[in-house]
Amino acid sequence: MTVPAKPVQLSIRSAEVADAPQITAVINAAFRIAEEFFIDGNRITQAEVEESLSKGVFLLAEVNGKLNGCVYVELRGERSYLGLLSVDPTCQQGGLGSALMSEAEKYCRERGSRGMDILIVSLREDLPSFYQKRGYVESGMSPFPPDVPTKIPCHFINMSKSL
Length: 163
Fold this sequence. Notes:
The protein is an alpha+beta fold and 163 residues long. Helix content is 28%, strand content 33%. It contains four helices and seven strands; from the N terminus they run E-H-H-E-E-E-H-E-H-E-E. It has helices at residues 20-35, 46-53, 96-110, 127-132; strands at residues 10-14, 57-63, 66-76, 79-87, 115-121, 137-143, 155-162. A seven-stranded mixed β-sheet has the order 1-2-3-4-5-7-6, sandwiched between helices. Strand 3 (66-76) and strand 4 (79-87) form a beta hairpin. Helix 1 packs across helix 2. The chain starts with 9 loop residues before the first strand and ends with a strand.
């Protein structure tokens, strides 16, 4: 006898400070796999997540009550910033990142933003096409933080989209 699979129930909500440990874990797990070839260590600390929560919001994607992904957005007048898009490595390639992007854009648009800005690391060759498919275009370059040691020189590619 087979047991019917539990239906997948995706919910997206705004994070609370109490979510900071789980947010930190998901971000670090996702970025470790994607960035270990050029950077050592964790991507973010719990204190940095908590500080980010004082300036913006993390939208959390939970499947059947388990945190599987998140994205950070910060309202900055008519433009917003999006960063730290992270999906648990065991859940990647299933559309969760795209769902989080759509929710983040909707969240900012509903609060008056007319545009979204992102920064991607130049060494992440997979990212430009991911964001271009979602309407983002390159809008410049920015230096990588000098206090973060890297194995390979890199910079940020700035990308923007009208909301």
